[in-house]
Hints:
Elements lengths: L2 H5 L11 H4 L1 H14 L5 H14 L3 H13 L4 H6 L12 H14 L8 H10 L2 H24 L14
Amino acid sequence: MNAAENTGHLPEHVPRLSWAELAPEVYKAMVKLDVAARQGVDPVVLELVKIRASQLNRCAFCIDMHSKDALAAGESVERIIQLSAWDESRHFYTAKEVAALELTEAVTVLTDGFVPDEVYEKAAKEFDETELAHLIASITVINAWNRFSVASRMVAGHYTPGRHKH
């Protein structure tokens, strides 16, 4: 009897492929890009951005990873839960965090068009130019990680903070 039968939960899906093992140079380059992008970005803002982009991209693996990382770093369960409805729960976040979340949504959901001037301008008021450049890079990087994870159907639920990071 497997674990799913014991809990009544549906069984896990099987990943399509292990892209990091099959394309190790791409994976290593992504890790380096991620490290470079996050320089100077507040770690709390960074985790909120990673969770929100992952929610928008429906990346269960990354939602699991970054929620656990945020919890391990001391983030509250309440603020993580509210991220899916942050626009209605702005009082949980600072003006800087809201600006980062608005920018995350604009950069992530490009099918709605370009990043609106007002969203960019709000972020530019909260972040200096270097921080803003790195924030945009970090948003772009988490979107790339999401796409690798969703396309290869990485399985959520097995991540342990500090063991594997992106």
